[in-house]
């Protein structure tokens, strides 16, 4: 795995806790996508399993380290949903628990890594609870999560909570600059659109992805003067609709910031003319109402199984046109 400079301090802190005998057997690491939590937990796993630690570093040479580097250490268990499934059921949990209560095959620590604890079904989470409360000796559970509030309270209470915050904006911008992705304004925009997570920003800055966002912004800029919001449908109706609606809602939020004289805090620094256009055409109340409707739409698209995406988007866009019509702009679909 890669390593990133903003992980140095949290890694040293966590390893220091374990080295001093104060490390918890169940660590719940809360991080936004793109902050490097997987790399951090893997590095911690290597240190825990290493048989000849060199201070806060794993030696990289002992038999356990070689097995970890080869990806086949028998005492390192990675829990993830089966291919094609979106949740982790009870059977894999039962299987790993059974293995944990036998002796470690390498005579050292046993580590279980679950990158997204939210993927546990309720039955799987309950099956894990007793082991988290009374774990076998020298056994560590490293759990990652995006939304701790979505986990069972009983599961959270058995873990030591650690929040991996996004790095300082300037540090992230320097790192993105070294990757050669985008110009300074684009880098700042991508970073802010992802709550400061550098790896997620780098992905957004990839040419194809950045062009997709630009196409949505261009479609919105062309649709507003004509009040033809249905023209946005081709730019929104894709499998990654949740991301595209995030881009759209961020524009509406930025327009509200612009109205309040806070344009410097806007996320979309590369689209300030479009933000100004939205701010001049819609009142603050209208912007809030439209954004809330889009957030509700996004929630339905993410949570309702079998929802008709195109129909839902069409309904929302036509509703936006009607709102513009009520404020004095004529919609081509109402004529």
UniProtKB/TrEMBL annotation:
The keyword Nucleotidyltransferase applies. It catalyses: DNA(n) + a 2'-deoxyribonucleoside 5'-triphosphate = DNA(n+1) + diphosphate. Its EC number is 2.7.7.7. Keywords: DNA replication, DNA-directed DNA polymerase, Nucleotidyltransferase, Transferase. It comes from the Bacteria. It is an enzyme of class 2 (transferase). Pfam families: DNA_pol3_delta2, DNApol3-delta_C, HolB_lid. SUPFAM superfamilies: P-loop containing nucleoside triphosphate hydrolases, post-AAA+ oligomerization domain-like. This is DNA polymerase III subunit delta'. Residues 208-322 form the DNA polymerase III delta subunit C-terminal domain. One of its GO terms (biological process) is DNA-templated DNA replication. Residues 167-206 form the DNA polymerase III subunit delta' AAA+ ATPase lid domain. InterPro entries: DNA_pol3_clamp-load_cplx_C, DNA_pol_HolB, DNA_pol_III_delta_C, DNA_Rep/Repair_Clamp_Loader, HolB_lid-gammaproteobact, P-loop_NTPase. One of its GO terms (cellular component) is DNA polymerase III complex. It comes from Serratia fonticola. GO terms for molecular function: 3'-5' exonuclease activity; DNA binding; DNA-directed DNA polymerase activity.
């Amino acid at each position: 795995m890669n390593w990133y400079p903003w992980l140095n301090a949290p890694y040293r802190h966590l390893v220091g806790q374990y080295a001093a005998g104060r490390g918890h057997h169940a660590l719940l690491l809360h991080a936004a996508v793109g902050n490097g939590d997987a790399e951090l937990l893997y590095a911690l796993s290597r240190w825990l399993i290493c048989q000849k630690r060199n201070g806060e570093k794993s030696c990289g040479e002992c038999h356990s380290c070689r097995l970890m580097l080869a990806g086949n250490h028998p005492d390192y268990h990675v829990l993830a949903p089966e291919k094609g499934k979106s949740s982790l059921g009870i059977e894999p949990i039962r299987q790993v628990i059974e293995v944990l209560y036998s002796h470690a095959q390498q005579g050292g620590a046993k580590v279980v890594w679950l990158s997204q604890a939210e993927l546990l079904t309720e039955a799987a989470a309950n099956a894990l609870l007793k082991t988290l409360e009374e774990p076998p000796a020298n056994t560590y559970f490293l759990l990652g999560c995006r939304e701790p509030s979505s986990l069972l309270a009983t599961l959270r209470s058995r873990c030591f909570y650690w929040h991996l915050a996004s790095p300082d904006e300037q540090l992230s911008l320097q790192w993105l600059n070294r990757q050669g992705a985008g110009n300074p304004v684009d880098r700042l925009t991508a970073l802010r659109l992802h709550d400061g997570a550098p790896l997620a920003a780098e992905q957004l800055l990839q040419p194809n992805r950045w062009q997709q966002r630009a196409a949505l912004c261009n479609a919105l800029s062309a649709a507003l003067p004509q009040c033809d919001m249905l023209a946005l449908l081709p730019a929104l109706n894709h499998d990654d609709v949740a991301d595209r609606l995030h881009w759209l809602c961020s524009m509406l939020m930025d327009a509200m910031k612009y109205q309040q004289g806070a344009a410097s805090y806007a996320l979309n620094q590369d689209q300030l003319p479009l933000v100004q256009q939205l701010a001049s055409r819609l009142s603050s109340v209208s912007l809030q109402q439209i954004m809330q409707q889009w957030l509700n739409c996004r929630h339905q698209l993410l949570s309702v199984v079998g929802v008709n995406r195109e129909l839902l988007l069409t309904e929302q866009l036509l509703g936006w046109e009607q709102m513009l019509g009520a404020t004095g702009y004529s919609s081509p679909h109402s004529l």
